[in-house]
Amino acid sequence: MALVREKDGKRLHVKSRLMGESLVSKQFMESLKIAPQQRLFPDVCLMKIGGQSICDRGAKALPGIIEEIVENRKQHKMLITTGGGTRSRHIYTIGLELGMPTGVIAKFGSTISEQNALMVAILLISHGGIQIDHHDLAKLPTYFDENIIPVMHGMPPYDYYAIRPATGRIPIHR
């Protein structure tokens, strides 16, 4: 791609079809030739441990799940994620009652999901479990080569930039 300097000589741009476009024109977006999406890790099994269905039940549910993960780690590359559960719903309620915006409420929910990921990672620690964050996804091949079981929170990384729902303020993607 070529570089283009503005007439005043102050700004430099990368010349492309997207240069100067607002990216909201439906006609323009439909005219773009886009390569088919590829699965980055087609051999990885994504497993979400529910916050309300599993994590909130503690010792009644988690040890059995941990045992299954450990038994299957040699045959399957697994990325373990966790939900927030009842505590997320509780913090959503408090945030709504205090008039917090959607992005702040989303951040609250992510924090609870992160706590559950830490708990699961610690339960897996003697078997190679570690807690990772969304920006660590590029490291997955290394983790699997080292027989590590990566665990991360399952909330989308919108946080403060969460999309406001049409009604209410509870984050759409949770």
Task: Give the CATH level 1 class of the domain at 44-161.
Answer: Alpha Beta
CATH topology of the domain at 44-161: Carbamate kinase
- The span between the termini is 38 Å
Note the main sheet: 4 strands, parallel
Mean pLDDT: 90
Q: What's the helix count?
A: 5
CATH-level-2 architecture of the domain at 44-161: 3-Layer(aba) Sandwich
Structural class: alpha/beta
Q: Helix fraction?
A: 25-40%
Biggest sheet strand line-up: 3-4-6-5
Number of strands: 6
CATH superfamily caption of the domain at 44-161: Acetylglutamate kinase-like
Helix and strand pattern: EEHEHEHHEHE
Beta percentage is 5-15%
Can you tell me the residue ranges where pLDDT is under 50 for at least 5 consecutive residues?
Answer: none
Radius of gyration: 21 Å
Topology diagram in text:
Blueprint: E1 3-5, E2 12-14, H1 26-31, E3 44-49, H2 62-72, E4 77-82, H3 86-97, H4 102-124, E5 129-131, H5 140-145, E6 149-153
Parallel strand pairs: 3-4, 4-6, 5-6
Antiparallel strand pairs: 1-2
Helix pairs in contact: 3-4
Description:
The model has no long low-confidence stretch (mean pLDDT 90). The longest helix is centred in the middle third of the chain and has 23 residues, at 102-124. The chain has helices at 26-31, 62-72, 86-97, 102-124, 140-145, and strands spanning 3-5, 12-14, 44-49, 77-82, 129-131, 149-153. It is extended and about 65 Å long. With 174 residues, it is α/β, with parallel strands linked by helices. Helix 3 packs antiparallel against helix 4. Helix 2 links the parallel strand 3 and strand 4. It is built from 5 helices and 6 strands, in the order ββαβαβααβαβ. It has a domain at 44-161: Acetylglutamate kinase-like (Carbamate kinase), CATH 3.40.1160. Strands 3-4-6-5 form a 4-stranded parallel sheet.
